[in-house]
Amino acid sequence: MTLADRYRRWFEFEQDAHARVLASLDTVSLENRDEQAFLESVELYAHMMSARLFWLYRFGVTELGPKGLFPKRVSLDELEDMAADTHATWADYLDRLDQEELDRIFEYKSEDGEVYSNSVEDILTQLFHHSAYHRGQIASRLKSIGGTPEPTDFVFWARDHVG
User: Fold this and answer.
1) Mean pLDDT across the stretch 73-84?
2) For residue 15, how many other CB atoms are within 10 A of its CB?
């Protein structure tokens, strides 16, 4: 398995994990959906999707970046559409991913205006860790208001039952 193949596999996992987070958001009762923890969870999910799209923009793959890294007042229906669009765009990009692209060094301007450079591989690694971090934050918030977070650890997705 090449490194590009591994990133494609990890992306398959992430799509499943993101779907599980959407399902978890839906476990919060209607009366608790005005709670700060729920609103923050929705915004964190939207942020994960926006960050993924923003990096494709920085890679030079898409023409326009998202409307912001931290979307506000997003509905669950909008999250589903956002996830579907983000995953489709990333799947297309990852279908073409090869070692040359992973090794490519690119420059970008950070939110504070400084210019940096990284390899594409660095950023793909960052994105997977970034999503895991925020999925944990969302799970904690949902539990605090009576939601039931689904497991999104890689091992649950990757393991095979033997017995």
Assistant:
1) 92
2) 16
